[in-house]
């Protein structure tokens, strides 16, 4: 629709570019279709003021205004100059281009809005799918319990190991501080040893008044050094004990992990095997049920056909041309109710019995379908209620479960 409107406007612009001033002024219906009358009138008015001597009209009137009743226009009108046609064409093309630019802007806005709506719908659909998936996975069975028990054991081991890691990180600054203090004491001791006199090496004699004291090469000279050595010894002992504890915790964690994983794997393998066997049994039961349904449907169809045959023809075209209405077979079909033949009563009783059998067969088929559905539901419930053999599980797994 928009392309047709644009084509019509362009064809009209071509026609307007080829018309004279007088014809364009008189074509009011065309101006209404184009809806650019004010712009053309302004252009033509400015040009007619310049070339007013070419058109015989009263002064002060512009194109588009009504002429007085007593005024008579002549039919002699010269062709407008080329510049006027070019200006009109340029003005028309500018209006058309502005219209097309606005149309493109609106189209771009609509496209961007449509893209945003599509993205929003996609995100909302993804969120709803994730929500439905979480709602569908609410039913739990023995395999879920096994995985939950394994998760609890691993979380407990993680907490133990994180505690040991925190203790180790707390011990590292203590060791660093004690090492720094020991280095300071060692530097101080080295300075003191440099200042001590070495009389024995110089060959001097010690008098009786002077006593030469022998210092312990590894002993402390000051109480501060003694305190630093004691704190360093305590930090080293704590580090040694922490290392022993960490080694024991790692050993116990590895042993527990090696015990938990095979137990859970065995339980999951049993669950998978039970699920596969149940699926195979359900497939066999479904096939047997379908076979029974088809068999019963064939029986119902046969009974229906027999019942229809016993009811007799429903229309004259059902009776063959060689059959006569006075035959006992036709009389048995109650074409003539006044007869006293015994076949009619027997057929009526047989039809009633067949109808009852047909009704009972339909009821049995419905009960069979319900029983098959109930049996399938019972199998599923029994599978869900199966638990892992607790004799094969260790004691700490039973306590965690």
Automatic annotation (TrEMBL):
UniProt entry tagged with the keyword Cytoplasm: yes
Superkingdom as given in the UniProt entry: Eukaryota
Keyword S-adenosyl-L-methionine belongs to the record: no
Intracellular or extracellular location(s): Cytoplasm
InterPro entries listed in its UniProt record: Tektin-like, TEKTL1
Main location group: cytoplasm
PANTHER family reported for this sequence: COILED-COIL DOMAIN-CONTAINING PROTEIN 105
Protein name: Uncharacterized protein
Organism: Mola mola (Ocean sunfish)
